[in-house]
Amino acid sequence: MVFTVYGGVNFYIALRMFQWLDLLIPGINIVIYSGAYIFIAISIFLGFLPLPSVIKGVLRRISAYWMGIFIYLPVFLLLADIIVLFGGITKLIPDPIPQYVHFYKGLVAIVLTGGTICYGAYNATRFKHVSYDIKLGKAPSGCMRMILISDSHIGSINNFENSLERIVPEINKLNPDIVCIAGDVFTDDFTAMRGPDKAISLFRSIKASYGVFACLGNHDGGDTFEQMMDFIKDSNITLLNDECVIIDDRLALFGRLDLHPIRGFGGLCRQDISEKIASVNANIPVVVMEHDPARIDEYGCEVDLILAGHVHRGQIIPVSLLTRAMFTADYGHYQKHADSPHVIVTSGISTWGPPLRVGTSNEIVSINLL
After folding, report:
1. Is 86 helix (H, G, I), strand (E, B) or coil?
2. In CA terms, which of 192, 318, 351, 354 is 20 to 30 Å from 312?
3. What is the predicted pLDDT for the residue at 246?
4. Mean pLDDT of all residues in the chain?
């Protein structure tokens, strides 16, 4: 069904764009056009072939931007078709429809798509600060500030390694007690990272009273898992694999292994941690880093706060409408009822797939535990 939909939408885009180009460049070669279009459309699949890293990098970049175009261009083309159809029915547009109407119909759709992609690419380079004050039933002695980030996706085409130069100083300005990274530090392949030594140095420069902690997301595995683990260790990040650390006898912090890692976590498997949670001093709050917010219903009153990411808030409209429908909590603060854990889901600090943000933002989250 997915291939049918993808093929059908691509046929519609290809047809409309050829018709428009034929008005712009009469007699355009349909064979050359079709070959170029098919190559772009299947670039997302070609990237999985065992090709040289340089070629795979080019294919990833083409396919990433193409997926953004694939989402917006048919919407604007279809909208333009509907407007012209309505104009013809109401006699606002002469019959037969003049060629210049078809030309400007296509041009407007292309301009709107290009504008949306350019805005999304620009917005994806920025980030905002979001803050929550969470009053727990078992508050740590004194206020404790946690910083939450997730989904950096190092190694994807968003070039997060350079963004770290701006993000780390902003984190340090917030004077955090704890920094939590809720999964998807990487994007499946460590070798796709640019400048790992620079990224390690920047991570090591994060200043937090009790340190930086992380859990693994679904993209933090694969054939280069050991290199990823070495990177996290060298970055002075404490990785919690279904493990707990007690912070100054004030808070218990757990980190969960994601349930569905892509190509595995080097043999590690998610464990039941209910007994570990039960063994925690009942007088201190329990915080769980759980990458995927689909798992929040696994926890009850024994947990005080869940930190999640993964969803990116859909990253771009209209995908954000789908995530809102699919997840109980796809973004922000959520609590089912008074005895349930507080849940905070971040939209992430970077992007995955299309390097675009439309209707959503990258963010650094401050959580004040009261």
Report:
1. helix
2. 192
3. 96
4. 94
